[in-house]
UniProtKB/TrEMBL annotation:
Its main location: membrane. The keyword Membrane applies. Required for vesicular transport between the endoplasmic reticulum and the Golgi apparatus. It comes from Gossypium armourianum. The keyword Transport applies. GO terms for cellular component: SNARE complex; vacuolar membrane. It is found in: Membrane. The lineage of its organism: Eukaryota, Viridiplantae, Streptophyta, Embryophyta, Tracheophyta. It comes from the Eukaryota. TPR repeats lie at residues 112-145. It is a peripheral membrane protein. This is Alpha-soluble NSF attachment protein. One of its GO terms (biological process) is SNARE complex disassembly.
Amino acid sequence: MGDQLAKGEEFVKKAEKKLNGWGLFSSKYEDAADLFDKAANCFKLAKSWDKAGSTYVKLANCHLKSDSKHETAQAYVDAAHCYKKTATKEAISCLQQAVNLFCDIGRLSMAARYYKEIAELYESEQNIEQAMDYFEKAADFFQNEDVSSSANQCKQKVAQFAAQIEQYQKAIEIYEEIARQSLTNNLLKYGVKGHLLNAGICQLCKGDVVAISNALERYQVEF
């Protein structure tokens, strides 16, 4: 591990020397990027996750200078996956940078994927409101890309959290929406009863007897 750490430090020095030296604009950043990539791999092998993460950020900056947005976004993702082991805040920041870049180049399914990952990190930190926000963003992006199953997974998380913080009406509306959408999808039809059951439980938690009765009648007609 010590050997890998030393090798990583050496690659970083060479990369920074490239950046500070003379050379063609594009070639300089490409050469430095290659060295930062090698350094980051060494730091990962040494399990030096903070150093690996910060080196991937340097790699991202090199790709950005070369106007390679996809490679920049991927470097931020790699940085985030290293930071996830030690620094959740930095991981979230890197994933947000990646999402912004994927949106810029029209890779909305990738943006959705990493919005979901940000949401899961906030969930792991017990930050329910931020987790809800990012699961909603992910659901919207997945829906726009017609990835219904992933969109529904994210919506269910939002409904679960909404119920947890006693936003029962919001949870009910989401469960009912998922149930309606699932009716038209052969792969998702089997889950309709479960979604309505969850909506019904939220109705019970609200304690509005009239609303519960009306909801049951409506479910029988609509579903």
